[in-house]
Structure formats: C-alpha cells, structure tokens
C-alpha cells in the first residue's frame, strides 16, 4: 500500500515539477526576447543618428541629401522607366541522331 501511495504522489509531484520547469523556461525565453528587442532598438537608434549625420555632412559640402531619391525623381520627370531585360541563352550540350526502321 505504501508503494501505491508513493506512486500516486510521484505523479502529482511530477506534474508540479513539470509546470515549474515550463514557467522557468518561459521566463528565460522572455528575457532573451527582451534582450533582442533592446539590442534592435539600440541599433535602430544608432542607424538613425548615423543617417542624420550623413545627411548633415552632405548638406555642408553641397551634395544632395538622398542621391537615389533625386535620381528617381529626375527619371520620372524625364519619363524614363526602369526596364527589366531578360536574355535567355540555350546551349546544346549533346546531339544524337537515331534512325528508326
């Protein structure tokens, strides 16, 4: 009878420990996600600062702030559109001739 009681308690304790393990895992994963979000936020802020600094430097020396935007606007004004040219080349690797009777 004592073994039955131990087995019964073991199942209950096992469920409790598994739940505690799941909670701990979720907390660890949450911490990793928060750290990644913080790092992404820092990188985006750094990138924005660097972009603004680059624009300021370009203004100081008399260059356009965004050369790509200026080029696109100029092409649109000229009526030019980007065109995709696709070239297909076929190469014959082996040629055989069969004579059917």
């Amino acid at each position: 009878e004592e073994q039955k009681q131990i087995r019964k308690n073991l199942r209950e304790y096992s469920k409790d420990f598994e739940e505690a393990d799941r909670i701990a895992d979720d907390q660890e994963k949450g911490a990793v996600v928060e750290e990644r979000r913080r790092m992404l936020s820092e990188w985006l802020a750094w990138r924005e600062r660097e972009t603004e600094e680059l624009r300021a430097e370009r203004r100081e020396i008399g260059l356009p702030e965004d050369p790509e935007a200026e080029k696109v606007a100029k092409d649109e004004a000229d009526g030019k559109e980007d065109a995709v040219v696709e070239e297909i080349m076929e190469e014959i690797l082996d040629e055989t001739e069969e004579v059917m009777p």
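Residues 56 and 84 are 35 Å apart (CA to CA). The longest helix spans residues 2-60.
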